[in-house]
Design brief:
The structure holds 2 protein chains of 2 kinds. Chain A is mainly α. Chain A has 9 helices and no strands. The chains are: A mainly alpha, B mainly alpha.
Chain lengths: 264, 191
């Protein structure tokens, strides 16, 4: 290896510097205490960059060693990303016990269906199978993130700003990843080496969002609905809800029956 | 371009749009069970039910038409349709309050049934659709009784669901109360 750096190398170097800076920033912020999987994800990004750079320098990017290390480390990164997303979902929904149990089942089931479907409709020839699997997992992560937001939106749950921005970053990045892989698998002969610039920009945008999320002082979390209510409060709550519903139901029934039979 | 490529290009775009829409902070009507109780205890506009029922009856209009006052009959009809539409708005608002209440109960409940939750989601969509359908039928001067029947059924089902949810919550509240009482007793005993 050696010689002058081309544009791709410059971008790779810039992204690597951003990854290292971001990791140092997270370590200084002691994010490993609050978001251990997110921290491990950032660490795995740095480890991948260093590992792949070493192999690249020694064997070049067309060697089987390079391909093997690049894809193996990519599998690790996607796994860490998945764990970080689950961690965010748990932090957001776990305090609502019933919703979290339901969301757990639904989101994992939907994720599995998306992954299976993505693999079924993909090109499964040998050269494309790893990338297709990668794309399927990224689609699965994106659907999981959107599903988590859908649950929170439906039940009117307030997602803390930090978790919201982290999740949006992951969601955007995974969506761009799917598009990027699709573009590569379909039009690689025309696009050449520029195909992953979009992904680089998406990654940098996500890192900026995550930087901003951790830099913003965390406000005191909005109080969730009281989880442990006293029997007295419950009795009052149940009575009010029942009486109001019974009244509405009765009026609707009367409205209907009177409309059906207009005689006074 | 084949279908799978289209799917892999379109689905992420749809997901990003959904992310932008769902990522906004939710507008919740209640922040605590006491706020919900206040909202449920508030008096509603739809208490003027007899007048609404009167507005939906045809006898007065037929009488005005039979006496040759067709202009007055038309005016009375349009005003009564507007009143009935307003009544529907009030029902819709009330249903929203109940939905919010049931969502708050779901947030507090220790267990949720996937089928039950999906059923309620479906029903709330149907309720919205029926309200709009009814409003258009009223505006067009058609008889919307069947749709009103549907709405009535939905509210009835919602009552049952809320009863089940509050029942589970009650069991849990009693359990929490018993456990904390037992712990309290144990603590004082050890002291």
């Amino acid at each position: 290896m050696g010689g002058s750096l081309n544009l791709r190398d410059v971008i790779w170097l810039a992204v690597s510097v951003v990854e290292v800076l971001f990791f140092i920033f997270l370590a200084l912020k002691r994010v490993y205490r609050t978001h251990p999987f997110f921290f491990l994800y950032a660490l795995s990004l740095v480890a991948q960059t260093l590992g792949v750079a070493l192999i690249y320098r020694r064997f070049g990017n067309s060697s089987p060693e390079y391909q093997y290390v690049a894809w193996l480390s990519q599998g690790l990164i996607v796994g860490m990303r998945w764990l970080a997303v689950v961690e965010i979902a748990r932090k957001t929904l776990a305090k609502y016990i019933g919703i979290w149990r339901l969301a757990n089942i639904v989101l994992f089931l939907v994720g599995l269906i998306v992954l299976t479907y993505a693999m079924i409709i993909s090109d499964l020839r040998l050269y494309a199978v790893v990338m297709s699997a990668d794309r399927g997992v990224e689609m699965c992560v994106a659907v999981f993130v959107v599903g988590m937001f859908a649950f929170a939106h439906y039940y009117r749950l307030r997602i803390p700003d930090l978790e919201r921005q982290l999740a949006i970053g992951f969601g955007l990045y995974s969506c761009v990843w799917v598009v990027n892989d699709t573009i590569y698998l379909t039009w690689r002969q025309w696009l050449g080496p520029v195909w992953d610039f979009m992904l680089t920009i998406a990654f940098l945008a996500s890192v900026v969002l995550w930087f901003k999320a951790f830099l913003t002082p965390m406000p005191i979390a909005a109080s969730a609905p009281e989880l442990k209510i006293s029997p007295e409060t419950y009795a009052q709550l149940a009575e009010e809800v029942h009486s109001r519903l019974a009244m509405l139901n009765g009026r609707l029934n009367r409205f209907w029956s009177s409309s059906e039979d207009p005689r006074p | 371009m084949n279908v799978s490529v289209l799917i892999f290009l379109l689905v992420p775009v749809i997901l990003v749009l959904l992310l932008a829409w769902l990522g906004r902070p939710p507008k919740s009507s209640f922040h605590s069970p006491s706020e919900m109780l206040d909202a449920l205890a508030r008096d509603r506009h739809y208490s003027r039910l007899p007048q609404i029922l009167q507005a939906l009856r045809e006898e007065d209009i037929q009488y005005l038409q039979s006496t040759g006052k067709s202009q007055l009959a038309a005016r009375a009809r349009s005003e009564r349709v507007a009143v009935a539409a307003h009544y529907l708005n009030c029902l819709e608002q009330e249903y929203q309050v109940l939905l919010e209440a049931s969502r708050m109960l779901s947030a507090m409940a220790p267990e949720l049934s996937a089928i039950g939750e999906f059923d309620r989601f479906q029903r709330s969509l149907r309720f919205m659709f029926c309200c709009r359908y009814l409003r258009w039928k009223l505006r067009l001067g058609l008889q919307p009784w069947n749709a009103i029947g549907l709405i009535s059924d939905m509210a009835g089902d919602m009552t049952l669901q809320l009863e089940a949810a509050t029942g589970r919550l009650g069991e849990r509240a009693m359990f929490t109360y018993d456990t904390s009482s037992a712990e309290g007793r144990g603590h004082s005993k050890s002291n």
